[in-house]
Amino acid sequence: MTTINLTDSVTDEAPAGASRRDDSAPLLEIKDLEISFTTATGVVNAVRGVDLTVYPGQSVAIVGESGSGKSTTAHAIIDLLPGTGKVAGGSIEFDGKSLVGLNRKATEHMRGREIGLVPQDPMSNLNPVWRIGTQISEALVANGFQGTKAEREARVTELLGEAGLPDGDRRARQYPHEFSGGMRQRALIAIGLASRPKLLIADEPTSALDVTVQKKILDHLEELTSELGTAVLFITHDLGLAAERAEHLVVMYKGKVVESGPALEILKNPQHEYTRRLVASAPSLASRRIQSAHEAGKEAAEQISGHEVEVDTKAPKDVVVAKDLTKVFKIRGSRPGTHTDFTAVDGIDFVLPRGKTLALVGESGSGKSTAANMVLGLLEPTSGSVVFDGKDTASLSGKEQFQMRRRVQPVFQNPYGSLDPMYSVFNSIEEPLRLHRVGDRKAREQRVRDLLEMVALPASTMQRFPNELSGGQRQRIAVARALALNPEVIVLDEAVSALDVLVQAQILQLLGDLQGELGLSYLFITHDLAVVRQIADLVAVMKDGRIVEHATTDEVFDDPQQDYTKDLLAAIPGGSLEIGGV
Amino acid sequence: MLWYIGRRLLQVIPVFIGATLLVYGMVFLRPGDPVAALGGERGLPEAVQEAIRAQFHLNEPFFVQYLYFLKGIFTWDLGPDFTGQPVTETIANAFPVTFELAVMAIVIETVFGIGFGLIAGLRKGKVFDSTVLVWSLLLIALPTFVLGFVAQIFLGVKLGWLPVTAGRDPNFESLLMPAMVLAGTSLAYILRLTRTSVAETITADHVRTARAKGLSRGQVTQRHVLRNSLIPVVTFIGADLGNLMAGSIVTEGIFNINGVGGTLFQSIVRGENVTVVTITTILVLVYIAANLIVDLLYAVLDPRIRYA
């Protein structure tokens, strides 16, 4: 894609001095960029000497983990650095003009018209109080759209259609909260491309979406930008996605570019140590079940879990069995006393064998988290039953239920939300022990120390608070807290979905090791099939509250029976690429 | 939506009965005999006192008195008070001036509170912000009578810009100073609420998106910051409307205004039970109406809120 096609442009009046250049001249050229933030403790250099070039019509991806400076670099281009951030050195040239130190008017003129942005989180990036159409049309007006109100509305409809939202007339009159995440992201793409910019910055445009939706939207974006001749700068943490969508990769680590070059070349032959680790830990179809210590299995578990309930040899082989499990939510109707039923989980059956991992896979809204909450005893099934260790949980008395809780523990998705910010790490891990009156204070402290060691954190972490820890460290704390009571089953509800690939790989490894050591059984809830391959023995694929496919992991991956499962597999980013071969 | 408003209006009935019964009960149980106090030091002759008690049904049991009151309310004929002036007239005289004052105060505190709060929130940590914060703290800390007298001395006496007191039949100009004094404290609260809310909204993702679209700074502020920041402010203003309608004994006293606050105070002192209960009931209804308006305004400001 090397030609600039501006015939479709509605604002084809480039400011003076920016004559259209030939293809050999870069559209965006960043040289030796330095960005610093002033904090209470001093100046932090978030970006240190970054070079980056984007040619007209080219697609470039910046890949890196959170904190690598990739988003900061992107935001510096359109002068939207948060807080105290400022460009401390280097140059950003766009279409022959310098963007650093541009005055406010010129910056506002450049935004939207020359460089568009598709932001990261579709849930928070649309203003909830304005209609979708209004939010698109104000972008048109701000960027010099001349025309009557009717023409503008027609254009909005056209843009929505272009972004993959047919029925644009009606959509334009709706509010963001009436849209799904995917639809909102499409609206944001329509806004980003509304004034036909020459460069589109796509900042993790789909990381908050389900894989199948992600694939559709990225396909669409690719088609649209190549049709319009727009250059795209992707910002992503997902190497597979980057390689699949961009011609050129730039790998960033701790504020520096560690490697850049053609996408496939980097994947096949990574030079830098960090890139190699990134390639190795990228979850993809090629990855295999984490085996470490797994075979050691149950005997070890019986020895180690010492004061825990003796593992009964006569105990049922399947620790959790869900039979015809159903959950119906009543949604309050418009008049008092009326309601409609919403069946979130519709008669599902699954089996979690002792010491194994069962993955419940599905998109958002498939009912997988509802099922998990019923297993945890946090929601009461409308009908059907959860049989835990041979006993129907519905028949348990309050006291027995309390006892059961200690044998089934959760780890939730958001490590920022699931730890109480006012509790120190010690308090967080000790709380379940205190609640269940395990040992005296001294014994409990020792136990917390042991648990931290188990999750590979130093004992000094005890005095710290969640806000001082990284996402990966917090998730380790959450795992330690779940382990505190020596549970038999751990329900992991999207436990690694919010983490960067490298951290994700570490936590998966940790979970694999712990399973081997302690003989734990995992119920693993996720939307990410690539992760499933690494951790699960069995897979149950959920769709609209039902289980559509339930088999071993290898069967599901090598020989999927259902079309829906095949779609899910095909949507894994980078699935077609040979990466991850360690 | 209509169903929602209808349901909210139906709630007025139990609130009305409960409020009147409660207030009437409290006034009834009050120690002291207003009739005996009518004659001052010497007291009235026993026979006259008896006649007055009969005229005002004061010898009847509590519920009979209460029913007389209800009848009076619904026919809007509450009879005379001890001075012979009809109760309805006293009330009808008190409310317009208080209403006028309340509306003026609301306008002042809304315009200046939101205006200054917006600028302070946009320039958090800068000189304007710090200055305005200190001033607002001062406004909150100063008792109304201090503020009132200071305003009278400077604006009224020294500068001669505004009339010092309002007096009987006040016009717009003479109510301006009392309205400013009345608005003072609330203005400071609105300012602080707006400032906090705005400072939070400008860091929102959707505001960044709006800027990335190429909107000018003014457009971003007006369309994407201000409206999203107003919900907590509207809540406060709604509650304040109720407070202002109850009048202010202090402000009305300082500026010699014959409003609801002063009338209520006098009626309590003189034991004019019917006047006290009627005014209180009207105020309860005003509160209910103000709350309903606030709730409906929420839905206007934020389309995610819908009433059914």
From TrEMBL, chain A:
CDD domains the UniProt entry points to: ABC_NikE_OppD_transporters
Residues of the signal peptide: none
Superkingdom of the source species: Bacteria
Residue ranges occupied by any ABC transporter domain in the UniProt entry: 30-279, 320-569
Spans annotated as Disordered: 1-23
Gene Ontology molecular functions: ATP binding
Any Pfam family the entry gives: ABC_tran
Alphabetized UniProt keyword annotations: ATP-binding, Nucleotide-binding, Transport
Similarity comment: Belongs to the ABC transporter superfamily.
Protein name according to UniProt: ABC transporter ATP-binding protein
Organism field: Myceligenerans indicum
UniProtKB/TrEMBL annotation, chain B:
Keyword Lipid metabolism: no
ABC transmembrane type-1 domain ranges (all copies): 95-294
Organism domain of life: Bacteria
UniProt-annotated location(s): Cell membrane
Transmembrane annotation, as ranges: 12-29, 101-120, 132-155, 175-191, 230-255, 275-301
Family of this protein: Belongs to the binding-protein-dependent transport system permease family.
Keywords for the protein's UniProt record, in alphabetical order: Cell membrane, Membrane, Transmembrane, Transmembrane helix, Transport
Topology in membrane: Multi-pass membrane protein
Protein name: ABC transporter permease
